[in-house]
Amino acid sequence: MNRKWFVFGMASILALGAAACSGEESSTGDGSDGDDEVTIKFVHWFNEENGKWEPLIEKYEAENPGVKVESMPLVENMNSQDYYKQLDLMAAAGEDLDVVMFSNPNDYVSRINAGLLEPLNTFLDDEGIDINEEYTNSFQAIDGDYYGVPMKQVNQMILMNKDHLDEAGLEIPTEWTWDEYREYAKELTTEDHYGSYLHTWHNLHSSLKLNSKPDGDNALLTESGDSNIKDPLVKESLELRYALENEDESSVPFSSILSQQMDYRQQFFTQEASMVPIGSFMLSEWGQFTPDFEMAWAPWPQLELTGVNYSGVGGDALSVAKSSNHKQEAYDFIRWLTTEGIVEQGIWVPSWNGANLDEVVENIAAGTSNPEALHLESIVHSLDVEPLDTYMPAPYITEVHTAHAAEVERYLLGDQDIDTTIENLETQIQNIADSNK
Questions:
Q1: Angle value at C-alpha 344, between 343 and 347, nearest 5 degrees
Q2: Scanning 148, 230, 264, 289, which has its CA 20 to 30 A from the CA of 224?
């Protein structure tokens, strides 16, 4: 399969442009005495309780005398968007940065455009590795240059309450369609809980079928940058969500999600909903919750049964700050953390292709507050997928997502019908495309 990876868009950050000046590279602590200890400043959004950085860093420092790593979670709430705000403030103030963590290609690319990150091609070439063979890489080259090494791999999957499945007499799906998801949601719905929960992420949860198209134009924009709203899967995705929430009453209504400011973790872990389409980061990122029921996973539903499970694949990446005085040391730490380190950490599924998947899943389970809550067999099966064949969209994709969300919400709230919604979307999104060409 020709895998062209999807980047959600490019935004510019004017404040970073001037701040991300390149420092003169040095292997010393402050660029002075060659015997000085080097300190690598590593910024991210995971607190110690959830990231478990200290034992990892201790091991790395023991194996690399003369190098210290300072873990710097910039927020306590583990909200990556709040983290980016703090990152931008640090960069604008000219504070020292060495290793920078990213949660998605959109925020990553915007910092590349702002000049915050160092190209890594020279380091990769010196090491003699092909990053796309070494990793399942959703952070592809920008104009031929790589700026990040993938760390955590996130697959799209369906998180399920196995206790609810058992009560309804349902098996854990191993290959299924969205029609079957709808039937499962009906069967799982009781007086006590809904069968399904879909969040306010319209480019995911209001685009379920479009996000299941294995190849071709499978985003809101075509590969050429024009509107893709005429793809029947756009309409079918909206009709599916509307049917779940308003006709079958098997998924939490969008009006309730908005009015009660619902959170997907809260809905699932309090057993208010039986299924959530979500990324595999939820294997361990439970927030303040500890489930007292068994959690199963099913592969992302397909448009039709083909014998192959496809899934969108993304994740986190680590980059070297352009202003770093310790670029080689920062790169060396990144390579260790994205291979041996992330396996040792035992929290996430690595993007590193050298990891043993069964061992990884067992380690993740063992490191949670309730290992018995994870149904390991279904996890391993649901992670063994073919990535969707996707492509880099035009840089105005953020405008498109904003316009899409506004029209979708009018439809889900009953303010306009599906045909008006599709007509408005086609006009608005094509106008965005035309005005940016």
A1: 70
A2: 148
